[in-house]
Amino acid sequence: PDQYRQVLLLRYQYQLALPDIAHQLGRSQEATKTLLYRAVLALRKQMQVLSTDSSTLTPPMA
Question: How does pLDDT run across 22-31, given as a tens digit for each residue?
Answer without folding.
Answer: 999 999 999 9
